[in-house]
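Hi R.,

Here are the chain sequences for the assembly we discussed:
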Amino acid sequence: MFEAAEVGSEVPKDEYEAQLDQLRIDLVNAQYDLQRAEFPVLVILVGDDRPGVSDAVNRLNEWMDARYVRTHVFGEHTDEERGRPRNWRYWRALPGRGQLAVYTGAWVLGTLGEHLRGDIDDAGLERRLRHMERFERALADDGALVVKLWIHLPKDEFKKRVKKALKAQKSAKKNGSAGKLDELDVRIYERYDEMVPLAERVLRSTNSGAAWRIVEGTDARFRDLTVARSILSALQARLSDEAPPPAPAPAPAGPEAPSVLAGVDLEASLARPQYRKERDALQGRLRQLSRDARRHGVSSVLVFEGWDAAGKGGVIRRLTQAMDVQDYRIVPVAAPSDEELRHHYLWRFWRQLPRAGRLLIFDRSWYGRVLVERVEGLTDEAAWRRAYSEINDFEEQLIEHGMLVAKFWLHVDPEEQLRRFELREQTPYKKYKITAEDYRNRARWEDYESAVSEMVANTSTELVPWRLVSANDKRHARVEVLRAVCDGLAERIGAREGA
Amino acid sequence: MFEAAEVGSEVPKDEYEAQLDQLRIDLVNAQYDLQRAEFPVLVILVGDDRPGVSDAVNRLNEWMDARYVRTHVFGEHTDEERGRPRNWRYWRALPGRGQLAVYTGAWVLGTLGEHLRGDIDDAGLERRLRHMERFERALADDGALVVKLWIHLPKDEFKKRVKKALKAQKSAKKNGSAGKLDELDVRIYERYDEMVPLAERVLRSTNSGAAWRIVEGTDARFRDLTVARSILSALQARLSDEAPPPAPAPAPAGPEAPSVLAGVDLEASLARPQYRKERDALQGRLRQLSRDARRHGVSSVLVFEGWDAAGKGGVIRRLTQAMDVQDYRIVPVAAPSDEELRHHYLWRFWRQLPRAGRLLIFDRSWYGRVLVERVEGLTDEAAWRRAYSEINDFEEQLIEHGMLVAKFWLHVDPEEQLRRFELREQTPYKKYKITAEDYRNRARWEDYESAVSEMVANTSTELVPWRLVSANDKRHARVEVLRAVCDGLAERIGAREGA
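And here is the predicted structure of the full complex:
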């Protein structure tokens, strides 16, 4: 893969200068057009030639209008980052539509380093590669333009530079200027023969969406021109719509899923005395577990979906009553802000992820994509169909981080819902909960039911199964959720302790 | 101050239960009305009775609709927080208009602890108190409702609880449930006699905006009812506009400031060979300084304001050329997002603050409040007049954190501006920079000039002076800014090394 970038490509100075003016004009104009466009641009610029990458990024910032280039250098993780899934920092830094971001030192390089140091084994590497690939695909599916560039230095050139750097280091001490290569680069050079095949493997595995472009780093002029040209041409192609829009994901074949909700036993109920006893015991257990979770840094994400008036609020309250306020947070999911609309639809959930040891409750969630957005026609079919696997991948990464992820659908039948609507209209402090929209949603019961069935069929995974909670009887529902959360927490804390 | 909260106030159980239903209805209804209102609510709930505070917050979350209460428990600083000014974490968590947030363990308690431990001296305490007071006033001026509650436990009651807690701790080991008081509370009790006078001093000093309400914590029912009632009545009063809107800040007296811009020597210039020499030397120096800054964790904020076409972009580019991309970030300030509009106008700048060791360049800034927003009539006079002292206080806190803050006004005369407009219209990649708006702004030159003069008069402080840069000659301007940034950085790094 790297052979073509070891041929000593170079650009003479006069040729370089002759091209520069027009290139810069084109770059700035493309940036300007991008601001009016409806897609984000993510440039991933990495390589074995770290100083070369850094120089190329600097050059890009010089040639383009640096105010509209957001460059992210991902180095050591901060402790806020360490408390969250590995990819969280990439998620939260994503450019919005009309914006351009450059990621350097991003996931590729970190993963390589971890494998070389033996921090992750082959299986771990494969899992990472799969996540990277899916993440990039999700971005591309969302309309993002992803440009991936790897700057490669042939071994003999690398050797020359290391030598020169070691020499320069001595004189640097005299005149006070800083050298180019640092220790890490020297270490990379020393393990060059191991690193290159591994890098090839990584690049090959992540080549399916946006393809990697490998740029030889020997000659700085060639390198910088090639990097800028690659970005420019991808951007121009996309702006002029020469590039076909990403193909919609194929709709999964097969007949309509049967209603999984039909299998929920709505007769389940719990008498008040029994309820009180179980609730109190479970709340006591949850109190202790949530403190243990804090101590062990086990964080949780609970997702609540369900019919209107199915009792989500009441269930959530029975959970939070048992916890210290510092240990939980509730995110009611409403319409996205304009900043959120400019990003991938999962971005607004990514940015909420809890810090280590805390529990986050989503009152409605990313599943809105395949429920209300689908049923109301707010999102096209290809997009919500894609969401199934995007969501599975997202939740899998939370689990891999050691988090508890639990999702609940609170199920009632239409008669019980109507009874509750009417009751609410008579209760002063619940009255505002009922609007005309609730009655409208009710009229689309069947559409929602088939959306729920398909959602469960596609996203109830071994790692994060859906729990369909019988909620015609509120007491039954509350105890069932309390117990499930306790069991889930205990299991996750146990796993952490055993680790 | 605390005497009135040491009288053994209590509420009998039947009375408590008789009131509860109506209280909850009123609370939830007020929350509902708030969502449609145009102000944020910040409840600061702290006290010497830490378990009491925690219980009261839990109770609030139970009584209100917890989904719309955002509770922040501020404990240990994360390293992302440590890298920024002390109050950054309070800034970034502020509720938007129509939202309610509860801060607990917030600035008051932390500051008390630090003073008791001897981490800050009396002068340090006074500085903190002044910042708190101003911060609260800025929020109130912006329309926020701030409710401050302190839960106090008389000493004999505190003693009883400590005893009980120590006893409970032993039995707790048997049945696995967690005790209420922890070590920190016991420590607070041990230093009770020192703590109470200090707490009084803190409360007195921060009593001028929203007044503190001290709530006795002996009886839980009394405590919870009082806390909820205090919040409810403040909220209701504000909602029904019984509370007068905050008085506008008085306009400073005195005649119109003379134009400070008249004093800028626009003849200053630099010949090209001299320019090249100085630029190269300064850029070399800046390269080294920015690396030193990273190593020492010295972060910087540079603010660029100036006439259209005064050359901000060119100046910024000469700075960034000399730095590694990981060391700087440029924030071009455009129209705020809807999320930003819901917050205090400084919020969108607070959230951008750089991590330790990095340099942030604002291309236009918070000074827009007293420039374009004033001149174009986008903000009323009381609001932009208030901004002067809010900005000074904000910048002072950055300086206290050890940051470099430098602000530049790039000055050209109207003739030079026109010349540049015309030139830009002929340059392909600069053409888009000129719009009809630029010509409109030009027509209001005098209004802007007097706004600039007044801005400089009010915000050029000893800590962060304005630097008015003569920019008719671009080379002169670039070298002057490069030099000022280098000198500023060297001074700040020197101070850090000496510390």
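The mean pLDDT of chain A is 87. The first strand of chain A starts at residue 41 and ends at 47.

Let me know if anything looks off.

Best,
T.
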